């Protein structure tokens, strides 16, 4: 890329950068705002409206990639997906801290894919480690208390570990940023730069919601919709809607079942993140499988 032209940037980069700048400014000026329950509420609404739809296209992606053809195959795909997700929930219940650590590692791998076209694998790894580690660097206590809600008191160690990873990754991010600046890769430079700014000024949940809902999810959605022939787009969006609503109903049911056992913010947080972890495993396996398949197809 040559000189910076805003119009040449992907729409999600612009939307994310604008939201991150606004959030950093407002929270930088009024650092005490946003009670925790409000942050959790914001996270819940945004994840359902903007985050879930990007996984809701998985059945369509799987069919298109040839994982199944007939209705029976579709049923099998859905059952397999749910079974994998349930297995993750079970693993979380049995080994909450190991599950959390694995979730963080899998997520780093998954989020690194956001820069697949722009960065080399080692640069992507650093970017993803910084992405997840920075909240623990700048808001150690908040991240530790979220981890304790998700995985019990021992999870403070995971927050400390993540902080160390974040510190190293932040240091390693400097040369990556310099390289992208030298190569005039404005899109990545703006995205990573704004992530750092956001991590400094926004509490972890606000930081995550702005990244996940305004950068990660829209990027994946846009790429998938671009793959669909024009005539199929309506049915694609309808499918995303149905899957999102079905997931929402399930999540609400789980949250309602858990309700007698604790406080509302804690239950919402658990349902959201353990739910995200559960969905990420089949979602990522599918992405890996389709990528492999594409790589095997002779050009
Ligand atoms: C819980 C938590 C974090 C990690 C969230 C992760 C790891 C989410 C992964 C979601 C995925 C993989 C979605 C798939 O599309 C942060 C941001 C470190 C800090 C705040 C608390
Ligand atoms: Fe994703």
From TrEMBL:
Pfam family, one: BCD
GO MF term list: beta-carotene 15,15'-dioxygenase activity; carotenoid dioxygenase activity; iron ion binding
Location in the cell: Cell membrane
Binding site for Fe cation: 54, 110, 216, 220
Membrane disposition: Multi-pass membrane protein
Single Gene Ontology BP annotation: carotene catabolic process
Iron as UniProt keyword: yes
Enzyme Commission code(s) on record: 1.13.11.63
Record keyword Transferase present: no
Location (main, coarse): membrane
Cofactor(s) named in the record: Fe(2+)
InterPro entries: Blh_diox
Alphabetized UniProt keyword annotations: Cell membrane, Dioxygenase, Iron, Membrane, Metal-binding, Oxidoreductase, Transmembrane, Transmembrane helix
GO cellular component: plasma membrane
Catalysed reaction, written as an equation: all-trans-beta-carotene + O2 = 2 all-trans-retinal
Membrane spanning stretches: 12-30, 36-57, 78-106, 126-150, 162-182, 194-215, 236-259, 271-289
Main function: Catalyzes the cleavage of beta-carotene at its central double bond (15,15') to yield two molecules of all-trans-retinal.
Family, per entry: Belongs to the Brp/Blh beta-carotene diooxygenase family.
HAMAP family the UniProt entry points to: Beta_carotene_diox (MF_02093)
Name listed for the protein in its UniProt record: Probable beta-carotene 15,15'-dioxygenase
Organism the protein comes from: Wenzhouxiangella limi
Lineage: Bacteria, Pseudomonadati, Pseudomonadota, Gammaproteobacteria, Chromatiales
């Amino acid at each position: 890329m040559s000189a910076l032209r805003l119009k040449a940037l992907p729409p999600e980069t612009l939307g994310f950068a604008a939201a991150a700048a606004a959030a950093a400014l407002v929270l930088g000026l009024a650092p005490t705002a946003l009670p925790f329950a409000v942050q959790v509420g914001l996270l819940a609404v945004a994840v359902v409206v903007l985050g879930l739809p990007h996984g809701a296209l998985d059945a369509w992606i799987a069919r298109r990639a040839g994982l199944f053809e007939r209705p029976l195959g579709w049923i099998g795909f859905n059952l397999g997906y749910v079974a994998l997700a349930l297995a993750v929930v079970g693993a979380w219940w049995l080994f909450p801290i190991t599950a959390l650590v694995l979730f963080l590692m899998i997520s780093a791998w998954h989020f690194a894919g956001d820069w697949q076209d722009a960065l080399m694998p080692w640069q992507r790894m650093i970017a993803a480690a910084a992405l997840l580690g920075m909240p623990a660097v700048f808001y150690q206590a908040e991240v530790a208390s979220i981890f304790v809600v998700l995985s019990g008191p021992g999870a403070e160690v995971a927050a400390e570990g993540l902080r160390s990873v974040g510190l190293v990754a932040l240091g390693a991010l400097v040369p990556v940023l310099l390289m992208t600046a030298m190569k005039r890769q404005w899109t990545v430079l703006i995205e990573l730069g704004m992530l750092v700014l956001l991590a400094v000024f926004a509490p972890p949940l606000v930081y995550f919601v702005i990244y996940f809902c305004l950068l990660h999810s829209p990027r994946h959605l846009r790429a998938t919709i671009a793959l669909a022939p024009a005539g199929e787009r309506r049915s694609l969006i309808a499918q995303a809607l149905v899957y999102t609503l079905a997931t929402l109903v399930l999540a609400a049911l789980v949250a309602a079942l858990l309700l007698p056992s604790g406080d509302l913010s804690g239950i919402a947080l658990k349902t959201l993140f353990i739910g995200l972890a559960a969905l990420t495993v089949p979602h990522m396996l599918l992405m890996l499988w389709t990528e492999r398949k594409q790589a095997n197809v002779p050009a």
